[in-house]
Amino acid sequence: MYISTFYLFKSKNFTSSNSFVFTKPFAKIRFNARSIKLVRPAYYIKTSNDFTISKNISLYIDFLYNDLGETLLEKKDGIYNLSVGISGSFFDKKLSLNITANDILNTYRFKDYRYYSIYNVIHEYVPDNTYAQINIRYNFSVGKSRRFKVQNNNSNTIRRL
Length: 161
Known about the structure:
The chain is mainly beta.
């Protein structure tokens, strides 16, 4: 079973995109000379919100939660991440400033528990995903001026990747 929804809301000063995914795969495996039916429901929730504070300044907040579920043989802890940022343009949109803080709660880490008869194995992966980033761009063009489009730093990072 697989369910996926996406919702986008736009108004003059606010944009919100939300997605939700639910999966419930089934599998039969052989374990300790018997057959086990594995059912692992998994959830994925992401919301991105962009608030326009003034004509040239916007604030964004992104939240992600991913729960990979549990079976008889394995359990995975949920993963969540919160990022915030502010972006603005100044001097007739010639100067662009973006300030971003990613994983401000320092919670983006993977941990799973695996059960092998009498042994329990714990695997933990802790990436250093917390950072603060400041981007400044200035357009020095003398001729026909090309203005920067006001975008938050998250959009710039996604486009770069």
